[in-house]
Structure formats: structure tokens, C-alpha cells
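Comment thread on ticket #2218

A.B. wrote:
> Attaching the input chain for the structure job we discussed in standup.
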Amino acid sequence: MKSQPLTDAEFERLSGVLQRFDNKDPMNLEQLDGFLAALICGPVNVPPSEYLPKILGDDMVLDDTFNGQAVLQDFLSLLMRHWNVIADTLQSDEIFLPLLFEDEDGTTRANDWATGFLRGMEVRKDQWAALVDDEQHGGLLVPIFALAHEHDADPDMRPYKEPISVETREKLIVGAAAGVTGIYHYFEADRLLENKLYGSSATVRRATLMIGRNDPCPCGSGKKFKHCCGRTTLH
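C.D. wrote:
> Ran it. Output below, let me know if you need it in another format.
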């Protein structure tokens, strides 16, 4: 059974909590969507122990309060549901639509989404090198890189010397969305091989984080949830 997409109200809840984590490099919803897309379509399964700190922050303030537990549990549940919606879409070959927002000028720029995708690639940078160096398929990443580096501090990293036109931006966004599907299939054999090596026959990386206070923490620390991520203070 496919996961139900998050409602606007649930996205608001997810965004509200995301802004309150004590993260030195926080993500907004658009960046989070790109980040998760990269993890899902990439070459290997990335465990929560590696990607949750990128979202929650490495240095979390601890407080074992019931309210903090409930809010964090809700956040993790919504996060995993959105993960599964993306995974379902890519596995079923439906059209992938990135989660994009308009800026104050009413323009959908997609820079944050592309930046989030690159952050997802960084989690397993070495394994992504095969696609980056692939002359035939590496072009799948070009629109994503172009959007991510549009305003790079290093002028040499910017894809265009002049501001991107509306038409060019639309083409880049369409190309980035199509690229995610292409990347998913490019690395499909790698993921299947990994599943076989680890005794799993799953073709879709579904994620579930329904955690009890005494269950092992999903971050992989080996501690109980209530003594690890479950103690995060939400300021």
C-alpha cells in the first residue's frame, strides 16, 4: 500500500519543527525534499545513523519531556511518510515532482531543492562518483548542479554569467525532476546487488520509524530512543 502524501497542514507541522532543531546548518522543507530524493535514488542504502544528524543537527540539547517526545515522534513519522511517498513514486515510474516553493517575488527558483540534493549526495560522495564521471549519463546531474550553483560565492562555479531567464529556469527544473527518475534507474542495479548481499529482496526502500521510548534509537547509536534522539529539546 502506498503512503499518503502529506497534507498542507502536515507539511506546516514538519516545517515548524524543522526550524526548531538545534542544527548549525538547518534545512527548510524544500532542501529536505531534495536531500531525501538524493538518498532514495542514490547508489546505496543510507542508514538513519548517517542522515538524521544532517537533519537534526549533531549537537542536540537534551530534555526528557513528554511534550518534546511527542513532537519529535510526530516529526519522525511525517519525515518517514514523505520518504516513502518519494520512494513509491520513483519505484512505480510515476512523474516525480520536487517540493518547490515560491520566493517573495512569486518565482519558483528551486535553488534550495538542488542544494538539498547535493547535500544528500555528499553523504555517500564516493559512490556517486560513478555517475558524475559517466560521460553518457552524467548529464542527469547537470540541471541539479546548475540550480545549486546559480548564486555560488565562487563566480567560476556559476553555470551562467547572466541571470537565468524564466524559460531556462523552467527547463532546468523539468530536467532536474526527470533527472531524479533517471538517476534512480541508473543506480537500480547497485541497490539490488546491495539488497542481495544483505539478504533483502526489497525493491523499494520503505522507511518506518514508529518508535517506543524503550526501543533502540533509529540513529544507530545503540542507545534507547528515550536516552538519545528522543530527548531532543525543541526550542
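A.B. wrote:
> Thanks. Noting for the ticket: The two ends are 36 Å apart (CA to CA).
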